[in-house]
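Why does residue order matter? Because the sequence determines the fold. Keep that principle in mind as you read this record.
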Amino acid sequence: MRYKVKVAAVCVAHLVTWPFGLAALIAHRRFGSERIFDFSAKLISLWPGRAGQILRASFYMQTLARCHYDLAVGFGSFFSHPAAEVGRRVGIGSFSIIGTATLGDDVMVASRVSILSGKYHHGGGGRARQFKDNPLELRSVHVGESSWLGEGSLVMADVGSRCIVSAGSVVTKAMPDDTTAIGNPARFLRYADKPDAATG
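Structure:
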């Protein structure tokens, strides 16, 4: 879909999503509650097809800290916190969950990917007997521009620019630019450019 057409479609979709977006914004900014945002994001994630992608782009433009018209979010995928920020031309496959994350321009996320809000949702260090007694600790995870997160990967730490997180990999520590993550826990590989074959 051409950009201008999608912009027009998302603008029309605002007529459908604005009650959800407005209610979510008021609840979050006025009362510090994310319940309406969470409910709306999960509900809209279940709308199928291209229409669903347009509705999701419309909703997130109204509710996320930063988002653009050209966001594409697949069926069953959703952002779990409105503090997330999204760059230009970001694509997310089906059944992925994005936490308190910042996604750079041209980031591609495959299906069934989870980007957690850091490693210590329920506090770091010493643990209480019940996890519910630990304080909630959310940290923004940054994914650099032009990076690709493969099928079923789990990201708990920053990912640099132009990186590849291989399918099923688990990123638990910051990932440098121009590297590939492989395994659980992921190790980082950097491939040197190969010289062109001699001709003549």
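The helical segments are 3-31, 35-44, 49-63.
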